[in-house]
TrEMBL record:
Protein name according to UniProt: LapA adhesin domain-containing protein
Biased composition (Low complexity): 59-74
Domain LapA adhesin: 3-67
Pfam families assigned to the protein according to its UniProt record, in alphabetical order: LapA
């Protein structure tokens, strides 16, 4: 069995080790005006390894980060 490597459009990759169920990638936040929520868009450009019989990787993932004060009741 081999690790699974997922290549992303921004030249990053996610490696999922043998016997693991997840992997991760870090992003640097870009400066945005205070009133806008940052949106990160990326896509999978390829996969390798993992010894899967048939693995299809397509689509775009969009993650919206909400960062601000937590409303607490008075």
């Amino acid at each position: 069995m081999r690790r699974l490597v997922i290549s992303l459009a921004n030249a990053s990759s996610i490696t999922i080790p043998v016997n693991a169920t997840s992997g991760s990638v870090n992003y640097n936040r870009t400066e945005q005006p205070v009133h806008q929520q940052p949106t990160l868009t990326n896509s999978i450009t390829g996969v390798s390894g993992g010894n899967f019989e048939k693995l299809e990787a397509s689509g775009t993932t969009t993650t919206t980060v909400t960062d601000g004060p937590i409303d607490t009741p008075p």
